[in-house]
Amino acid sequence: MPRIPTPAIAAAGLVGGYAVARWTKKRPLGGVVLAGAGVVAAREWQQVGGVKASVGLTTAYVAAFAGSHPLAKKIGAWPAVFSVAGAVAAASWAVTRDRG
After folding, report:
1. What's the rounded Cα separation, in Å, for the pair 67 and 96?
2. Do 17 and 30 meet the contact criterion of CB atoms below 8 Å apart?
3. Per residue in 41-95, pLDDT tens?
4. Distance in angstroms (rounded) separating the CA atoms of residues 7 and 13
5. Cα atoms in the 13 Å half-sphere on the side-chain side of 47
6. Is pLDDT at 100 greater than 60 in this prediction?
7. pLDDT tier at 98 (50, 70, 90 boundaries)?
8. Cα–Cα distance for residue pair 56/14, rounded to 1 Å
9. pLDDT for residue 1 is more than 70
10. Residue 83: what pLDDT?
11. What is the rounded CA–CA span in Å between residue 27 and residue 84?
């Protein structure tokens, strides 16, 4: 079975988590989506890039989530979410592109 690329998993977790929280008006449900995708991505990052890559990219994933909140006050919620999702996807691609 082909693997889903980790940049897509990470971006989908950030965008999907926000979308679920916003549309259901249940922030914890969005957190479940965010965390679930984060766990899947972290596992894949570890398999493809090793422990250092997984720890670094997971830290970036969590920082992107946290950073999207103050960024949203400046540029709006959806632009902030798409910006941080793109940044994490790019970092994931840069770290794992030659390894898996």
Report:
1. 23
2. yes
3. 999 999 999 999 999 999 999 999 999 999 999 999 999 999 999 999 999 999 9
4. 10
5. 10
6. no
7. confident
8. 17
9. no
10. 98
11. 18
Residues 6+ apart with CB under 8 A from 92: 6, 7, 10, 41, 45, 57
pTM of the model: 0.92
Q: Which of 21, 73, 72, 10 is nearest to 45 (CA)?
A: 10
For the residues of 13-73, what is the DSSP string, one character each? Answer: HHHHHHHHHHHHS-HHHHHHHHHHHHHHHHHHHHHHH-HHHHHHHHHHHHHHHHHHHHHHH
Handedness of CA 66, 67, 68, 70 (dihedral sign): positive
Token output for 83: 């910006």
Q: Of 3, 33, 2, 5, which Cα lies nearest the Cα of 94?
A: 5
User: In the structure encoding, which two tokens stand for residue 63, read together?
Assistant: 């920082």
